[in-house]
Amino acid sequence: MITDEMIKTEFVHRIVSRDMKRIYATQADVVNTYLSGGTGRLKEFLTSAPFQLVTVSQFEKVYHMRLFNYLRFLDIKYRRGEQMKLRRNLHLYNRVVWGVLKGDTEPDILYGFTQEVRKHINAELEETLKEK
Description:
Helix content: 55-70%
Order of helices and strands: HHEEHHHH
Number of domains: 1
Number of strands: 2
Structural class: mainly alpha
Shape: elongated
């Protein structure tokens, strides 16, 4: 039996997973384009997309998104003179993380759970149960 709570949980999981992948992909693109050189550790880290889902209970999930500490302050390094043009292109933390979370994730979760979405997810979950 598929409950309404299961459908809501699956909907939120899909939205959050989609947007976490988008955040890491955007950050990896910026690092590849504007911060080539160095050890490559940041590029490797972002490419691996260290996103983790922890199930607390049947209907409660906690999402962990890991970020390097220095990623938040990397654009500060390029704040003077000629480096200002580079800094404008460094969408690594605030512009990406908060832009996606507040601009895409939050509205999709608040307003995107329509009857059509509910029916679609219900059908997918029922099909998955039949296959098992």
